[in-house]
């Protein structure tokens, strides 16, 4: 059975997700959003397993050094140039497909949920891939200066599902049979 992939992101009204290598609202700390991110990405649904976070190299370096690796999660960093994982990262993969193969092989027994946490090109690749995909999108109501953006969410591929706390989108390109 194919694994459900999750992405989590906070966006400004213009879908901005970053500015100069940081979150757009940096140095302001959005405590509730950080708590939500941690709860979602660090809480496995299966006892004895850990969630996996996949991120690009720029996202890895945008995390304050004291917070790397993200605790209680397996951290996979993507880079085509690095030959060894950045200091503190658990694994290095050359691309998204390689990270998914790593999860299904070497990490299969310990991995629970898989979370894509940035950046923009990784979100785009995940959103365009086949299989069940869920996007957990927190809308920040204030506009900040941004130079990095979440790709547009195609409503012919995703549908908005009700949630009392955070809007989230799900995508399923797998055909369903009904009886």
TrEMBL record:
Pathway: Cofactor biosynthesis; tetrahydrofolate biosynthesis; 5,6,7,8-tetrahydrofolate from 7,8-dihydrofolate: step 1/1. Pfam families: DHFR_1 (PF00186). One of its GO terms (molecular function) is dihydrofolate reductase activity. GO terms for cellular component: mitochondrion. InterPro entries: DHFR, DHFR-like_dom_sf, DHFR_dom. Residues 4-179 form the DHFR domain. PROSITE patterns: DHFR_2. CDD domains: DHFR. It catalyses: (6S)-5,6,7,8-tetrahydrofolate + NADP(+) = 7,8-dihydrofolate + NADPH + H(+). SUPFAM superfamilies: Dihydrofolate reductase-like. Keywords: NADP, One-carbon metabolism, Oxidoreductase. Its EC number is 1.5.1.3. It comes from the Eukaryota. GO terms for biological process: dihydrofolate metabolic process; folic acid metabolic process; one-carbon metabolic process; tetrahydrofolate biosynthetic process. Belongs to the dihydrofolate reductase family. This is dihydrofolate reductase. It comes from Astatotilapia calliptera.
């Amino acid at each position: 059975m194919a694994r459900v992939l999750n992405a989590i992101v906070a966006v400004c009204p213009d879908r901005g997700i970053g500015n100069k290598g940081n979150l757009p609202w940096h140095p302001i700390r959005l405590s509730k959003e950080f708590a939500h991110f941690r709860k979602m990405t660090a809480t496995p649904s299966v006892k004895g397993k850990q969630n996996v976070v996949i991120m690009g190299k720029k996202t890895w370096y945008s995390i304050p050094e004291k917070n790397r690796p993200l605790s209680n999660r397996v951290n996979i960093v993507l880079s085509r140039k690095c030959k060894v994982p950045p200091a503190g990262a658990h694994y290095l993969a050359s691309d998204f497909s390689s990270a998914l193969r790593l999860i299904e092989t070497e990490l299969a027994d310990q991995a629970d949920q898989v979370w894509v946490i940035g950046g923009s090109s990784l979100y785009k690749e995940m959103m365009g891939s086949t299989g069940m995909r869920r996007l957990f999108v927190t809308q920040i109501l204030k506009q900040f200066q941004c130079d990095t953006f979440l790709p547009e969410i195609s409503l012919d591929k995703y549908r908005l599902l009700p949630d009392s706390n955070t809007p989230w989108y799900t995508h399923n390109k797998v055909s369903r049979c009904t009886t």
